[in-house]
Amino acid sequence: MDIYSILFWFLSAMAVGSALGVILSRNPVNSVMFLILTFFAISGHYIIMNAQFLAVVNIIVYAGAIMVLFLFVIMLMNLNADVEPQKGMMIQLAGVISGGTLFLVILMGLTTAKSELIDTKSSDIGLISNLGKVLFTKFALPFEISSVLFLSAMIGAVVIGKKEHIPASEKAEIV
Amino acid sequence: MTAIIATTVFGIIMMFTGLFVDNKKTVSSIAAVLFVALLGINIMELSDATGPALRSMTLSLLGTADNTNGAFPQLLFNNMLRIDKMSMWFGTAMTACTALYILLIGKEFRKVGTHVAEYFALIFFILCGLYILTAYNSMLMLFIGIEIMSIPQYVLAGSDKRNLKSSEASLKYFLMGAFSTGILLMGITLLYGATRTFNVTEMVPMLHSESLNPLAISGIVFIMVALGFKVSAAPMHTWTPDVYDGTPTAFTAFMATIVKAGVFFAFLRLFHVSFGNISEHWLMILAIVTALTLLIGNVTAVYQQSVKRMLAYSSIAQAGFMLFSVLAVSSNIAWNGIILYGVAYSVATIGVFAVLVKMKDYTYDGFNGLAKKNPLLAFVTTIFLFSLAGIPLTGGFMAKYYVLLAVMHQGNMMWLVIFALLMAAISVYYYFRVIIAMYFKQGDPELTSEVTMGDQVLLIATTIIVILLGVMPHWFLMPA
């Protein structure tokens, strides 16, 4: 067993274990902490696949920015184990059956698939210079056109976030 | 390609209009002019499509080699887009529907909220997504197109901030939409794992029945679920009634029609071009989805008390018919079917919504006695509902005829066609309830605004389009 497979199994166990922790822990704050751990494990996977840039971005964006926001929201809403809504037996059963079916289907797909996967050790496709090159040549259009997506998200923030000017006649009613 | 650039630029112009122009009326007029201009650009592009001079000029401007040897389809940006005549024709038809929608309903935007210019900008961006979906040639473009189409819709759904139902609709749509996007990405990933390409046409040789990678089948099913969510096909339809009901009526009219037709075109393109050779692996799943969509959409619509909610369920039912064009893998009529169905359904539904935004009470009782109060409104509504129900001589009949014919040519799914006809008969019941309320019941319906001369002319024009679609459908199909 070489160092790659040891790292691989360690990181995989960590990712799966903390992902289970996310859904099984009662306290939402613990769930978020487990989620951060999951992201770190996945970043580790990226590194052993020689995709350093992706690993760093994953840590900065997900574990850093998004999870902090997430944690803030949970703390502001003051959620704890007591206010967690109780689900009925039937709903839990339905969830288990549908989720289990999905799991079996994907498991079948993955186990019977031909495993002619990429060689992780020699490939340097995940390095930042290669990523930059394909982003501005082969994938220039998707890269550029996602600006439209961000523009509409910005407009959305304005439309939903900005205070509406309410006419004086209606103001009286609200107050 | 020009259309994608133009609609983005127009969207940005609308953003600046919101900054500098305070008068909402002026904003609406500028938007209407821009939409008509966009239609003009589309028509120009379509008519120039065969003219060699302009095409080579645009190609040299874009810096792409003319590798198509002077003939369509045009492959742009390293095969990211594949613009053929069919996609241009569909894009132009949908732009025409949008222009009609803006002219009919655009002035109702003022009642929704203060950010009128931004609403128009968002609609321009949705159209940008639609053009990408008509011309994508890579899974990445499919994903980005669907996202560009969806995100503005989440915003539009929540634009009426003082209404709790609108906020609920927005949040619900956003969460469910994000979930379905995750499923779409998963599907694309699995498919990429099986074929090693994002390209829609290049993956065809990798997908053949003898040595099919199971990853590919799971990927196809995931993509089917995600696209089915976007078009509100049956097991994935549960968001539709609440979202369409809570969204301000002016925007529901857009979400339920043009957006849905656009996603259907993408659906059809992917499943016919890429997965057409291995249709035996997914056809039965999609047939069951279609049957469920028809059943749930039509039967639940019968029990609704609000016309707006009934139209939401009717949009599910109509999606069931549009799925027939995806089912007809080996038929050439399917493409014409989806274009005709998209246009006929959009025009008729926009017409009904244009009348609905004028009503104060959205229940069936709110329509009581409309024929006495305003005979014209009642008459045009009747024609639109005839079209939705699929009565001959209206667009809806020809559209249903085309999509069902496409499946019948294939010959292996007669049970589904018969089932669809049965369901169409049920749909007559709930569409005609509105007509009965308008003509045979006493009442004094209240209108929120005056029906102006312009409204009347536009409504009559829409009615004429609906009838022309039924009498002369070939005018709306791409000349061979």
Automatic annotation (TrEMBL), chain A:
GO terms for cellular component: plasma membrane. It is a multi-pass membrane protein. Its main location: membrane. The keyword Acyltransferase does not apply. Its EC number is 7.1.1.-. The chain crosses the membrane at residues 6-25, 32-49, 55-77, 89-110, 139-161. It catalyses: a quinone + NADH + 5 H(+)(in) = a quinol + NAD(+) + 4 H(+)(out). One of its GO terms (molecular function) is NADH dehydrogenase (ubiquinone) activity. Keywords: Cell membrane, Membrane, NAD, Quinone, Transmembrane, Transmembrane helix. It is found in: Cell membrane. NDH-1 shuttles electrons from NADH, via FMN and iron-sulfur (Fe-S) centers, to quinones in the respiratory chain. Couples the redox reaction to proton translocation (for every two electrons transferred, four hydrogen ions are translocated across the cytoplasmic membrane), and thus conserves the redox energy in a proton gradient. Belongs to the complex I subunit 6 family. This is NADH-quinone oxidoreductase subunit J. It comes from Flavipsychrobacter stenotrophus.
UniProtKB/TrEMBL annotation, chain B:
The chain crosses the membrane at residues 6-22, 29-47, 86-104, 116-133, 139-159, 171-192, 212-229, 250-270, 282-303, 310-329, 335-356, 376-393, 413-432, 457-477. Keywords: Cell membrane, Membrane, NAD, Quinone, Translocase, Transmembrane, Transmembrane helix, Transport. The keyword Transmembrane helix applies. The keyword Transmembrane applies. Residues 137-425 form the NADH:quinone oxidoreductase/Mrp antiporter transmembrane domain. InterPro entries: NADH-Q_OxRdtase_suN/2, ND/Mrp_TM. It is a multi-pass membrane protein. NDH-1 shuttles electrons from NADH, via FMN and iron-sulfur (Fe-S) centers, to quinones in the respiratory chain. The immediate electron acceptor for the enzyme in this species is believed to be a menaquinone. Couples the redox reaction to proton translocation (for every two electrons transferred, four hydrogen ions are translocated across the cytoplasmic membrane), and thus conserves the redox energy in a proton gradient. This is NADH-quinone oxidoreductase subunit N.
